[in-house]
Structure to design on (213 residues):
């Protein structure tokens, strides 16, 4: 789903400014998966900046209200989606819960936390979409629980083809406030990277599995 350019640009400026997203095309990061990448994202840093977290909260709330007016509850994905999800639920005056990667091994053994009723219409909130695997695992859990998952909202997406295909295969809509294309244009305009880096950054997005190998 298309997000307004001013919103996406502002998010990119914020995330680059506080180094929540870093670009290092000539000194790549190594992800937990072992993949090499010129980009690293930790959008949890935005929570430490009131102006930025408020902007993100309001932008997510506005898009969710417009795109999913029938939403009855907001669900965060543990752990990074919990805080932005709770902020959005508060802005929308909706119930909030979150979904764990696996059920607790003690107590009630819950995987879906909160006073969330099966069959409620929910929107899932994430901080980041990369391949979409962890997000869709959470959505599978919610569907098994009985939730009517309307879609997923995130702060940022790398816009990888594999993610788009995974969400399509799962028949789940999603949107992000900002994406890789907008981020790179802002990074070029602000001097975080230069024109010589553009091709390197584009090559990674085209084939992250083989980039840097």
């Amino acid at each position: 789903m298309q997000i307004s350019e001013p919103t996406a640009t502002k998010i990119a400026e914020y995330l680059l400014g506080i180094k929540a997203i870093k670009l290092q095309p000539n000194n790549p990061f190594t992800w937990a998966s072992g993949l090499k990448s010129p980009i690293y994202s930790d959008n949890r840093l935005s929570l430490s900046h009131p102006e930025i977290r408020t902007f993100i909260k309001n932008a997510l709330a506005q898009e969710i209200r417009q795109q999913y007016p029938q939403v009855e509850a907001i669900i965060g994905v543990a752990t990074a989606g919990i805080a932005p999800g709770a902020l959005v639920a508060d802005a929308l005056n909706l119930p909030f819960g979150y979904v764990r990667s696996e059920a607790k091994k003690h107590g009630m053994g819950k995987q879906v936390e909160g006073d969330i009723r099966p069959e409620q219409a929910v929107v899932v909130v994430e901080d980041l979409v990369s391949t979409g695997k962890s997000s869709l695992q959470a959505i599978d859990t919610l569907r098994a629980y009985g939730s009517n998952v309307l879609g997923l909202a995130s702060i940022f997406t790398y816009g990888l083809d594999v993610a788009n295909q995974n969400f399509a295969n799962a028949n789940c809509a999603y949107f992000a406030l900002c994406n890789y294309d907008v981020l790179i244009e802002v990074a070029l305009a602000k001097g975080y990277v230069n024109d010589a880096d553009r091709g390197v950054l584009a090559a990674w997005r085209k084939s992250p599995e083989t980039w840097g190998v």
